[in-house]
Amino acid sequence: MLVDGGKAQLSAARGVLRELGLEGDVAVLALAKREEELFLPGAAAPLALARTSPTLTLLRRQRDEARPAAPRRAPPRPAAPHRASRASPRPAALRRAPPRPKKKM
User: Fold this and answer.
1) What's the angle, vertex CA 58, arms to CA 7 and CA 13, rounded to 5?
2) What share of the chain is helix, strand, coil (3-state, %, to 5)?
3) Which label site among 15, 16, 36, 86 has the fewest CB atoms less than 10 Å from its CB?
4) Is residue 72 pLDDT above 70, yes or no?
5) Which of 55, 74, 54 has its CA nearest to residue 2?
6) In angstroms, what CA-CA distances link 83 with 86, 87, 88?
7) Does this model's pTM top 0.85?
8) Rounded to an integer, what distance in angstroms lies between the CA atom of residue 41 and that of residue 30?
9) In Å, how far are 7, 11, 29 from 66, measured between CA atoms?
10) 41: closest CA among 3, 93, 95?
11) SS3 of 97, please?
12) How far apart are the C-alpha atoms of 95 and 88, rounded to whole Å?
């Protein structure tokens, strides 16, 4: 399984595989975007492949191909209709005092 991300995303994916009981059954690695480093489980440092490496090219294509199909953030919730409220949204100490009536002469 190729994970789009770095060390943290690899760790999260391994945790999910562990929960599903698939940890030893599925090979997993992560490809970080910024430096194009390959993270392998148990490796102390990421593997840096040459930028022109056919292996890196294949992994990039696989990662980038999956991106359009990946779920995005949830769509924003529709705004709730405005409801008039009897209660003031401000505490009493912050409310403006009503204007004083003008004196009649």
Assistant:
1) 30
2) 30, 10, 60
3) 86
4) no
5) 55
6) 10, 11, 13
7) no
8) 9
9) 19, 19, 15
10) 3
11) coil
12) 8
